[in-house]
Every structure is written in C-alpha cells, then in structure tokens.
Amino acid sequence: MPEKGREENLEERIRTSIAEYVGSPENTLQNAGNEPAWGNPLVGFARGDDPIWLELKKDIGPFYWTPSEIFSLAFPSLKCSAEQLTVISWVLPQTERTKSDHRMETAYPSERWSRSRKYGEDFNVKLRKHLVKELMDAGHEAVAPQIFPLWKMQTSEKYGLASTWSERHAAYAAGLGTFGLCDGLITSVGKAMRTGSTVARIRVPATPRPYEDPHAYCLFFAKGKGVCGKCAKRCPAGAITKDGGHDKARCQAYCDNTTKDYISEHFGFEAYGCGLCQVNVPCESGIPVKDNAGR
To answer: Which of 130, 169, 200, 265 is deepest in the core (most CB within 10 A)?
Structure first.
C-alpha cells in the first residue's frame, strides 16, 4: 500500500491486498479439510460525495450513515470533505462445494453454509480489519462501518429491520450488484455471497454503476412474477411473497428460533443464518437477466 501522497496505482494495490488476503489461510471454513470459505472476490469503489448516499439515507431512514458521517464519528478531530472519501466494497462468493451442499436442503442450512456464515464471516471481519490497518499504516485514515462500535440495528419506517450501515447497499453503490426479490444482492458472481466495506480518505476512481434500477438484475422485477419468484418457493419461513414483499422480521425469527438451534444440535457450533433463497435459483451464481448478463 503506498504512503499518503503516493497514490498512483492505489486502486490496483487495494484490489491486490484484498485478493491476497482472501487467498491466505485465514480464509477457512474450519472443517476437517480446512476448505476456503470464499472464492475469488469482486471489488468496487464509490465516491464519498456520490448523491446515492443521501438518497439511501432519505429512503432508509435518518439513522443511516453517509460515508462522511461514519468517517466523522471515527475521526472527530479530522476535517475531511465527502469528496475526499472513497468507499471500498467487496463481494465474497460462496464456493461451488458450499452451494452444491446447500441446494440439496429445503428447510435447514447445510453444514458448509453454516460454517461460511460463522467462520466465513469471522474471516470477513478480519479482512475489514486487515484493509483498515494497511490503509492506516500507509497514512490513509480508514474505518470499517460494520464493525465500528456505534453500528447498530435500527427500525426503518419504510423497510422495518435496518441498520446504521448496510454492506449490501454499499456494494450496490459501488457498482457490484442490484437487489432481488428476497433483498439479496445479485452480483456478477451471483447472490450466494457476503459483502464487506471500508470508508477511507483516498481518491480512487468510482466503479461505474451499469444500472439505475435497484432491481435491474432480478428476473422477478425485470420480467414479471410469472417468470421467476423461485426464491419465494425456497424460503422455509414463508418470508418472501410473489407480490414483491419480504418480511424481514419473519426471516429473522426463523433464523433465531429454528436454524440457530438446528446448527448447534447437528454441527456442534453456534451460528445464525439460513440462506436457502440464495441457491437453486437463477441468480445463484450470476446475473440471470440476459440484457445485463455481460455487464
């Protein structure tokens, strides 16, 4: 990572740093084969002064942080304008073995998927910290909003369950994907993935967003309910409906009251999650809308 004042090739260096860390032994399901939790990452960038952040704040709720707001919380004595900031976002795709296992399930998460939710997300936290440290060591102030102490869940008047920062919305802003019927993010490597992000005082060209519609890559919204809606059929909690609704509270309740106990009893570790709507669907591993397939 270059020091402050020497930012040439900074974008490439950040991409390389993330890719190399994903390729490290830290990326593991912690199973008998010590398999990697994630495949090769996608990385995107969004300007700190992109109007989309204020649009998201207005849409989600006043509690939602813009990049400037979270950066000011992390560095209260540092004067920094929004145009000096860049949001770095990444996508960590599920491995083929994990997706294959999970496709076979209809009510509960597979073991590999459960491990990716626990140990894979533990790695994602390490990746956030790793990138922040590399940036800070090079003289670029940075913060990972999702693991900042003031991050918390909130209630959106429009959407219900929400939070002060959303990794998926950051990825959407950084040109990495659009939302599906189940609210998962459909990316060029599909919806079976997790995301992470960091806000840094750097200037890196923004990744183009090849979409304006937040649901552009979803067959249900692009082609109509008669064409898809398969994620609704995959949901064991009945939290996704083919009229375009997603009951987040019902989804969370299923994870809290059903899958959490199942994972503990069957796999011997504590984890949370379901993810059945992310596999065995047209958007599992790519963008199913033909008009956007090459973007």
So the answer is: 200
Q: By three-state DSSP, how is residue 118 classified?
A: helix
Query: What is the edge-to-edge ordering of all strands in the sheet holding 193-200?
Result: 42-47, 86-93, 193-200, 142-143
Distance CA 34, CA 36 (A): 7
Instruction: Work out the pLDDT band at 203, boundaries 50, 70, 90.
Output: very high
- DSSP conformational letter for 238: -
Query: Can you give the three-state secondary structure of 173-207, one letter per residue?
Result: HCCCEEECCCCCEEECCECCEEEEEEEECCCCCCC
Report the alpha-carbon distance of residue 56 to residue 176 in Å, rounded: 16
Q: Could you tell me the pLDDT band of residue 270, with boundaries at 50, 70 and 90?
A: very high
Q: Nearest to residue 31, comparing CAs of 159, 131, 118? A: 118
In whole angstroms, what is the distance from residue 251 CA to residue 235 CA? 9
Q: Name the residue with tokens 């076979």.
A: 104
Using an 8 Å Cβ cutoff, are 275 and 109 in contact? yes
In angstroms, rounded to a whole number, what is the distance separating the alpha carbons of residues 228 and 181?
Answer: 10
With residue 87 as reference, give the H or E element that holds it.
strand 86-93
Question: What residues contact residue 233 under an 8 Å CB cut-off, 6+ apart?
Answer: none
- Convert 20-33 to b/e letters by CB count within 10 Å (16 or more is b): ebbeeeebbbeeee
Confidence bin at 226 (pLDDT 50/70/90): confident
Q: How far is CA 101 from CA 111, 123, 199, 278, in A?
A: 8, 21, 35, 12
Per domain, the residue ranges of the chain are: 10-287
- Whether the per-residue pLDDT at 94 is higher than 70: the answer is yes
pLDDT in tens, 138-186: 999 999 999 999 999 999 999 999 999 999 999 999 999 999 999 999 9
Q: Are 214 and 154 in contact, with CB atoms under 8 Å apart?
A: no
